[in-house]
Every structure is written in C-alpha cells, then in structure tokens.
Amino acid sequence: MLNGKWDMILHSPMGDKAVIFEAAEEGEALTGRFSADSGWNTEIYEGKVDEAAFSFKVDFPVPAMGSFTFTLKGEADGDTMSGIAKMAVGKCKFEAKRI
Question: What is the pTM of this model?
C-alpha cells in the first residue's frame, strides 16, 4: 500500500518542510528514505505497517541545533496519506501524495 514515492509536507514548528519519501514495505516491515532539495537524504527506521496504518522514525537536521527525531504515525488511503509527527518540542501534522 505504501510502496513508491511520496511528495510529503510536514507542518513543523520550524515551518513547513517539503520532502520526498520513498517507501518500501515487506510484510509488516517498512523501510525507506527521506530526501529534500537541500541535499538532505536519510533512511527511516523502526518502520511498521499494519494494513493502512503505519509508523516510523526519521532524524531531521536542524541548522545550529543538531537534529530532531520525528516519530510519524498515520494512515494511507490509496494515493494519499496523513498523520501526526511527534518530536521532542511538540507535534505536527503531515500529509503526502503519491508521485
């Protein structure tokens, strides 16, 4: 259900972040990569899929602050997905469309 490339927007407290999420699922395991035009490229980890529901973690770099770990949980519906991303400083919504 999640396999493929997704155009994702994270509505973070530091402003909206546009990323490309490349997902691959095998059984209940979810793997993938996040990338951005800035050259940032990292793998997700602890990814899980349960029918339409999914969860995973990814580390986002924050200039002059190191990085934040985001835990994303959401649901996919065809070519769209949405959910909540939690981090140490709060939580934010995200949505994505398959590309």
Answer: 0.89
